[in-house]
Amino acid sequence: MQNYGARKLLTLTLSLALTLGLHAQNGVQGLQSAVEGVKITKDPKDTTKMTWKTGGLASITFNQAALSNWSAGGDKSALSLNAIGNLYAFYLDGRRSWDNFLNAQYGIANTTSLGTRKTNDLLDITSKYGYDLGKKWYLTGLFDFRTQFAPGYNYPTADSKILTSDFLAPAYLLLSAGMDWKPTTNFSLFMSPATMREVLVNNDSLASVAAFGVDSGKKSRFEFGAYVTINYQTNVSKTANYTGRLDLFSDYTRNPQDIAVYMTNVLNVKVTSLVSMLLSLNLIYDNNIPSVKADGTKGGPALQLQETMGIGFAYKFARKARKPIPPPPPPATPPPATPPSATQQK
Predict the structure, then answer these.
(1) For residue 56, what pLDDT is reported?
(2) pLDDT at residue 31, rounded to an integer
(3) Mean pLDDT of 230-239
(4) Would 81 be classed as within a structural domain?
(5) Looking at the domain assignment, is residue 176 inside a domain?
(6) 265, 4 in Cβ contact below 8 A?
(7) How far from 79 is each of 51, 59, 114, 255, 275, CA to CA, in Å?
(8) How far apart are CA 44 and CA 33, in angstroms?
(9) Which are the contacts of 167, defined by CB distance < 8 A and separation ≥ 6?
(10) In this predicted model, what pLDDT tens digit does every residue of 185-225 receive, in sequence order?
C-alpha cells in the first residue's frame, strides 16, 4: 500500500452486505466494481506499468432474536451467521492477461425448534489466462473449480434429515479453451467449443444412489462439450451496483440439447461508508440434479432458486503493483587520454 497515508487507508474500509447466493463466480467484473472509487495515485514521472492488481472483500453479518412470554408467538431464540470472502489477483503486461478469483461463502442459522441448519455454502476458484489478438478478442484458457465446505441436508420433517451433498460431492472441475470478447471494461463473453468437465461425488452414500448424474457406484463422471460464460456489471446509481453472471454448458456425449444453466445476480447498495445492503438471486437448472419432494423422495429436474438479502459490515481492500524499475546503467568510462603527436609537440 505504498504512497497511502492514514487518511487514504481509511477509505478502504467500505461496505459489503453479506449473503451472496450460490456460486461464485460473480466473476472478475464483480471484483473490479468492488474496488471502484479506491484511488491509487501514481507519480506522473513514473512510466513503469501496473502489472498486478490484488484485493478483495470480507464481510460478516449476525442476526439474533430472543422471545420471552411473547403473545405473538415464535421461537424462543434465533441466531444466524453469514460470512463471505472474495479475493482477486489480476495480471496485465502487454498482450498477456491473467485473472484469478476466489469466492468463499458460508452461513448457518440456529433456532430453538429446528436446531442448527446450513443456509449458504460455496467454494469457487476461477483462473483465466488470455492473449490479446486485437479488436477486443483474447485467445483464452480457463480453469474453474466449484464445491462446498460442509454436508447439506434435506429435512422432510423436523426430526429427520436426508444427506443431499457434502464436500467434493458434488465438485465440478472445468478446463476450457476458447475466445474471450471484452468490448468494454464491464462486459466479457467467453465461448469455448472444447471444454472438459469432471463431476465428482466423493461420498459413498451419495455415489451409491447415482447422485448428480454419476453412475451408481462410481465417484466421477467425465463430460466434454461447449461452454459459454457471460459477466456483466454496471453502476445503477451512485450508491448501487449490479453484477451478473450466466454460465451455460452442453455435454456433446449425453443429450447435448439439455443445457446446464447457472446464473447469479447481485445488487449491492451502499447505505453508509461502513454499511451496505446486498440482494442476490441465484438460479440453477441441471438435468442431472433431481429435485427433492417434501417427503424426501426424488423428483424430476427442476429450476433451483435462492434469494438472499442482508445488511452488514464489510472490509474492502485493494493494491496495485508496478513492474520493477530496471537499475540505471553504469556511468560511461571516459576513453583513455591520447598522447600528443609529434606535430602537436612542435
Answers:
(1) 78
(2) 34
(3) 88
(4) yes
(5) yes
(6) no
(7) 44, 17, 11, 44, 20
(8) 25
(9) 147, 148, 149, 150, 151, 202
(10) 789 999 999 999 999 999 999 999 888 989 988 999 999 99
Which DSSP state fits 32?
A: H
106 falls within a domain = yes
3-state DSSP helix/strand/coil percent for the chain, to nearest 5?
5, 60, 35
- Cα 47 to Cα 41, 127, 251, 324: the distances in Å are 13, 28, 48, 11
For residue 281, pLDDT over 50 is answered with yes
Contact (Cβ atoms closer than 8 angstroms) between residue 273 and residue 291: no
- The pLDDT value recorded for residue 12 is 35
**DSSP per residue over 197-255, as a string?**
EEEE---HHHHHTTGGGPPTT-SEEEEEEEEEEEEEEEESSSSEEEEEEEEEEEETTS-
Please choose, from the candidates 80, 55, 58, 76, the residue with its C-alpha nearest in 3D space to the C-alpha of residue 67: 76
Query: Is the residue at 144 inside a domain?
Result: yes
The SS3 call for residue 47 is coil
Provide the b/e sequence for 266-283 (b: ≥16 CB within 10 Å). Answer: bbbbbeeeebbbbbbbbb
The number of folded domains in the chain is 1
Confidence bin at 174 (pLDDT 50/70/90): very high
CA-to-CA distance for 143 and 127, rounded, in angstroms?
5
Reply yes or no on whether the pLDDT at 170 is more than 90. Answer: yes
Residue 246: give its domain's CATH number: 2.40.230
- The secondary structure element, H or E, covering residue 130 is strand 115-134
Please choose, from the candidates 318, 256, 331, the residue with its C-alpha nearest in 3D space to the C-alpha of residue 9.
318
Bridge partners (DSSP) of residue 122 are 105
At position 233, the amino acid (one-letter code) is Q
C-alpha cell at 70: 411473547
Q: Which domain holds residue 242?
A: 6-324
Question: Do the strands 220-235 and 240-251 form a parallel or antiparallel pair, or are they unpaired?
Answer: antiparallel
